[in-house]
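Technical note accompanying the year-one report. For the benefit of new consortium partners, we illustrate the data format agreed upon in the data management plan: each record pairs a sequence with a structure-token string. No post-processing was applied to the example shown here.
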Amino acid sequence: MEEYLIFVAIGGLIFLTLIVNSVSEAYEQKQREKRIKILKIKQGLEELSHLLERLKGLDIANDIRDLLLNEIMARLQAIQRLDRHFRGIQALIEEASEEAKQAPSAQAGSNIKDESQFKQTMVMFRQLLKWLSTNQWYSRVTPTQLKTYSQDVKLLRCEKIFQFYADRASQETEQKNYLVAKEHYHYILHALRQSGISSNPRIVELIEQAEFMIGQISQTISDKVKKIVNDENSKESSENDEQEEQPEQTAQADIEKSSETPPSSPEQATATPSSNAK
């Protein structure tokens, strides 16, 4: 009987150990999954915070700004739900809340003049459009809203492209680099037509402006070429006229010279009358 109880006790201990190990493994698995989720949320959170900070210099619509702030808040709250003891989470939530309450400052559409700044701006637009095209949102936003915001960002990007390259084309035109200026407007046309919103009225207007400027520059180049050709033809005509007048002037000069030449001696002057008298 005692042996039987010993076997039962040992079996119970083994069973209890297995249960404890199973529960421990399940807990560890759950913790790993939670850490992975938090890590993914945190990565997206850092990207959004960095993007929002860099977009402050651009005239982004307030609705898009609010969308990014709401997403940051939703992700912080998601982290808090997963781990209430996550270090600094409450302070981050309060900071995001204060940022969302602040009235957006008036942002004027400043022109981009530096090429490095222009490239950075285009990178920011690509990042923002990538976020707007994903469905991994923790905040409440509909696909229709995301599509509308995406259209707005594409429109702003096109306007920045037009402004930057039109300014460069104007500079090249002032320096009489007409072909380079024309290439800038051709790039504008390519970018606007490939923007995905080429039917937008504002984009249609910008395309028409670029086409008009290309026509103006082409006309200027044509006038310059015609002037050069005309100048060359006038120069050749003048040279030909000078070459034709030169023999006539030489012959006339010889005739005048021969008629003005006096006899070489008195004997030559009286030779003919003397001979006639004989």
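Partners are asked to follow this layout when depositing records. Residues 76 and 93 are 6 Å apart (CA to CA).
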